[in-house]
Specification:
By secondary structure, this protein is an alpha/beta fold. The protein is built from 11 helices and 9 strands. Bound molecules: S-adenosylmethionine (SAM).
Length: about 300
């Protein structure tokens, strides 16, 4: 009798416990744990040197090709460059290597470890440089920038892992000076669809088809994705920015883990093949911007638009 009563009490407590955990789980699904996300992103970033990892210098060159061409055609010279989520400073170095000069350069990243690495690399490679580095979350940094203060903004390989990137897109036309330009690279839905297939996560592909945000790999990191049609529609309409050029970065190649890594990794090519790949990706990337590791594009603020406070 006593045992029976105890079992009933235990079952009732277990049921209440289950309901509580279930509610908690559902709530967490709707509000992904930003603490875990941030911890994982910082940890991964500080263990991966974008300036020396085997294939990354090749992709830095592709960014350099695109950015230098656009700066030239927009006749932008000097001014203030903001490299947001600058990492180890790979893009600052790439632009300096090409002789592209700015009056001021500010890099920001939310990882103090990364910024220490960045400082060291910049000082070793560009002795006497005056690059200012600031430790800040990208949302806070953009919010606190003066209006009309940026000639050039780089937001590369970061926004796909930032919560509510739309809030940042919405600030760009305020923070750019009239005529200024921002370069962004985002993940395409196609890239994540192929990566999920590669990992055998077939059931998660629906999320990519029907949504544009989520922890699709179950890794604790919240991701978002888009496509060039959506960018072309939304940036002018929602954010008052003109999209002036597109490019797929890595349309025919990849780093380990990418869908196309088995086709070609730049670091495994001899000089001749490397140059062929660069040429091929230049053409394929501009014809098929969604096909790559990232969709790279640039947006400008019309010279006649003044920021409103
Ligand atoms: C893949 S790396 C790209 C670095 C650099 N943009 C490049 O292309 O070489 C991503 C960087 O974004 C930073 N990051 C990620 N989320 C961030 C956030 N919310 N605020 C500021 N930095 C962030 C990471 O610390 C890391 O340095």
């Amino acid at each position: 009798m006593l045992l029976n009563r105890l079992l009933k009490i235990a079952k009732s407590l277990a049921r209440k416990g289950y309901l509580l955990l279930d509610r908690l789980d559902k709530a967490l699904e709707q509000n992904p744990d930003s603490g875990v996300h941030t911890y994982l992103v910082k940890r991964a970033a500080s263990r991966y040197d974008m300036t020396t990892s085997a294939d990354e210098p090749y992709y830095a060159e592709r960014y350099g090709d695109f950015i230098s061409k656009e700066l030239k055609s927009l006749e932008i010279e000097g001014g203030h460059l903001f490299d947001l989520a600058c990492g180890q400073g790979r893009l600052i170095l790439e632009l300096a290597r090409r002789g592209i000069q700015f009056d001021n350069i500010t890099g920001a990243d939310f990882s103090g470890d990364i910024l220490n690495q960045c400082r060291q690399i910049l000082d070793d490679t560009l002795p006497g440089n005056s690059v200012v580095l600031k430790e800040s979350d990208i949302h806070k940094f953009v919010e606190n920038m003066d209006d009309n203060s940026a000639d050039v903004m780089l937001l590369l390989e970061v926004l796909y892992m930032v919560f509510e990137p739309e809030k940042i897109y919405g600030q760009l036309s305020k923070k750019l000076r009239p005529g200024g330009v921002a370069f962004l690279s985002l993940r395409s839905d196609l890239f994540y669809a192929l990566t999920l297939l590669k990992q055998g996560l077939y059931e998660n592909t629906e999320q990519v088809v029907h949504g544009n945000v989520g922890d699709i790999f179950g890794s604790g990191v919240n991701l978002n994705w888009t496509n060039s049609a959506q960018i072309l529609r939304e940036f002018p309409e929602k954010y008052g920015l003109e999209v002036t050029a597109f490019m797929g970065i890595g349309s025919c190649s990849g780093i380990p883990g990418d869908p196309l890594d088995h086709i070609c990794r730049p670091s495994q090519l001899d000089e001749k093949a490397y140059n062929y790949l660069a040429q091929l990706e230049q053409t394929m990337g501009s014809r098929h911007p969604d096909s790559g590791r990232y969709i790279l594009f640039c947006v400008t603020k019309a010279a006649s638009i003044e920021a409103k406070g």
